[in-house]
């Protein structure tokens, strides 16, 4: 059972390395409670996305909520989207390297290659089938969160260890 305010689990927690299971009961009280807590924890932590495994729940649920923040000042504004049981297809094979961080890996940023444009099939919070095309930063956020459902973290995608920096160095670089 989830506590009232679950902490964001940190790198090294086993749940971050598990393949999350699909949601099959959209009326389940635990599912409904988790949806509320996910969004609250994401906003409280200044995140632009979050995945259920980050709160210790190994379910295929993510929220994508691109918006300008201190870490991502140029991010486009979009309403938060709850994405359940997602799959995606690559629409643009180009990989673009850009900075990422993670609420489960505080204090570190890294350059991570991601696809620029993707087509996402998913279910909404009521289990209805949906689809969307995401490009650029929102596509990056989705792929980052989708990795959490596959038992991966963004550091697994880094091509060169020199692309990993302390957050303090990251802020110096974006200020320059």
UniProtKB/TrEMBL annotation:
Chemical reaction(s) catalysed:
N-terminal N-formyl-L-methionyl-[peptide] + H2O = N-terminal L-methionyl-[peptide] + formate
Q: Which GO terms describe its biological process?
A: translation
Please name the catalytic residues of this protein: 145
Q: Which UniProt keywords apply?
A: Hydrolase, Iron, Metal-binding, Protein biosynthesis
| Any one GO molecular-function label of the UniProt entry | metal ion binding
Q: Does the keyword Iron apply?
A: yes
What does the record say about how the cofactor binds? Binds 1 Fe(2+) ion.
Q: Which residues bind Fe cation?
A: 102, 144, 148
Cofactors that this protein relies on: Fe(2+)
EC nos: 3.5.1.88
In terms of Pfam families, this protein maps to:
Pep_deformylase
Q: If you read the UniProt record, what top EC class would you report for this enzyme, in one word? A: hydrolase
User: Could you say which protein family the record assigns here?
Assistant: Belongs to the polypeptide deformylase family.
NCBIfam families reported for this sequence:
pept_deformyl, PRK00150.1-3
**HAMAP family referenced in this protein's UniProt entry, alphabetically:** Pep_deformylase (MF_00163)
Stated role: Removes the formyl group from the N-terminal Met of newly synthesized proteins. Requires at least a dipeptide for an efficient rate of reaction. N-terminal L-methionine is a prerequisite for activity but the enzyme has broad specificity at other positions.
Name of protein: Peptide deformylase
